[in-house]
């Protein structure tokens, strides 16, 4: 695949389009928040477990993000090396979310092997084409999508892990530390995955704009 650099000018976003997308993203976040609320109140047997709404919603968000990235890379053929790295990260996260299922029905530690099989070849390809990756990343780093992705990454992989430490929640509520800890960590993680999905939607819209611009130029 030949390297394709992003256009120098960013994609213009009009005010009506911004309002529409903001409304849809607000509805998405409100919807998953309401789902977690329903789970906490009315699903005590599956509350914040592998069978609950929150865990299922996390997998759905990651699956949608993976499909969008596949279309960006294979369908639109934009940002091939950046999209490959993002695809490896998101697909690896999707597999990681299935750890309990894989450990129970495949083998203990199966998810680590699958994640390694996804990430290592992609990482090798990115390192091999590091100059093209760096050039493409410059264009992506200045986009709205990258800002959202960075926010989602920090929320999911940094803040949720620190916020969900059992010792802190044990100190807050000694008799129910486990459920408090799970609610805090999984809820924040769910929001982080929502941010990542929104970032992938924005990346899809951005690269589709670039692809159309190339065809008309």
Description:
- Keywords: Membrane, Transmembrane, Transmembrane helix.
- The chain crosses the membrane at residues 12-32, 52-72, 110-127, 139-159, 190-211.
- The chain is mainly α.
- The chain has one domain (15-216).
- Helices cover 80% and strands 0% of the residues.
- The protein contains nine helices and no strands.
- It has helices at residues 15-42, 53-76, 80-96, 99-105, 110-128, 130-141, 144-163, 166-172, 177-216.
- Helix 3 packs antiparallel against helix 5.
- The model has no long low-confidence stretch (mean pLDDT 88).
Short synopsis of the structure:
The protein has 217 residues and is an all-alpha fold. The protein has helices spanning 15-42, 53-76, 80-96, 99-105, 110-128, 130-141, 144-163, 166-172, 177-216.
Oligomerization state of this entry? single chain
Percent of residues in helices comes to over 70%
N- and C-termini, Cα separation: 21 Å
Radius of gyration: 19 Å
How much strand? under 5%
Spatial shape? globular
Structural class: mainly alpha
Q: What is the ordering of alpha helices and beta strands?
A: HHHHHHHHH
- Total DSSP E strands: 0
Helix count, DSSP H or I runs of 4 or more residues: 9
Mind describing the biggest β-sheet? Answer: none
List the domain count as a whole number: 1
What does the average pLDDT come to? 88
Low-confidence stretches: none
Transmembrane segments: 12-32, 52-72, 110-127, 139-159, 190-211
Keywords: Membrane, Transmembrane, Transmembrane helix
């Amino acid at each position: 695949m030949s390297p394709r650099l992003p256009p120098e000018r960013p994609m213009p976003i009009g005010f009506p389009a911004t309002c529409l997308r903001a409304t849809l993203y607000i509805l998405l976040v409100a919807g998953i928040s309401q789902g977690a609320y329903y789970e906490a109140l009315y699903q005590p047997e599956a509350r914040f477990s592998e069978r609950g709404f929150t865990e299922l919603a996390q997998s759905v968000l990651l699956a949608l993000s993976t499909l969008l990235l596949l279309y960006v890379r294979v369908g639109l053929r934009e940002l091939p090396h950046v999209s490959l790295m993002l695809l490896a990260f998101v697909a690896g996260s999707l597999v990681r979310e299935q750890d309990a299922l894989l450990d129970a029905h495949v083998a203990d530690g199966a998810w680590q092997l699958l994640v390694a099989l996804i990430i290592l070849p992609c990482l090798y390809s990115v390192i091999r084409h590091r100059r093209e990756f760096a050039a493409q990343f410059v264009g992506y780093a200045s986009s709205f999508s990258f800002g959202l992705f960075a926010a989602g990454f920090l929320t999911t992989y940094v803040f949720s892990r620190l916020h969900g430490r059992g010792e802190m929640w044990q100190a807050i509520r000694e008799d129910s530390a486990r459920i408090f800890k799970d609610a805090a960590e999984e809820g924040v993680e769910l929001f982080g995955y929502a941010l990542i999905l929104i970032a992938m939607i924005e990346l899809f819209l951005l690269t589709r704009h670039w692809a159309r611009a190339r065809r008309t130029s």
